Amino acid sequence: TDSVVGYNGDVTGTPYISPDGHYLVSIDDVKGLMKIQIITVRGEIQDAFDIHTNLHISDVAFQASFTEAHQYNVFGSSTTQTDVLFVELSSGKVKMVKSLKEPLKPDEWPWNSKNRLIEGSGLFGQYLMTPSKESLFILDGRLNKLNCEITEVERGNTVIWVGEA
């Protein structure tokens, strides 16, 4: 549509849309809230569930579900902590991927507010990448756990996947 069809109530924060356009994920760092909403085929926004977190989400990445057809999961990296949040959007299941070392401090990354980004490996890829202060971490999105650490990469906060998945 080319016009505003309505407002999203009192939802605040940074909005992210799943690749299929069916989920709206809003991150409100002030309230410590991740709000998940469903977008219907008619374009209507319906509340699904909320997640209260003290992670201070820096960035999110969507990944196609490996257990359910036509569904997505979302991963959220933390501005201040060593964990990554995993949320299964269809069910609300939440899991933490732990011990990914300390992220860059926000003032050490002045280019934008995403001091710890998270990047998926493509539409059909199962891996994600997120940096810490001195390493890069490869996460296995299929198993929702750490796959490996690449050490001695300082301030590696700009990442790109290259090659075939």
From TrEMBL:
Taxonomy, superkingdom: Eukaryota
What's the protein here called? Answer: Follistatin-like protein 5
Species per Swiss-Prot/TrEMBL record: Sceloporus grammicus (Mesquite lizard)
Report which gene this protein is encoded by: fstl5
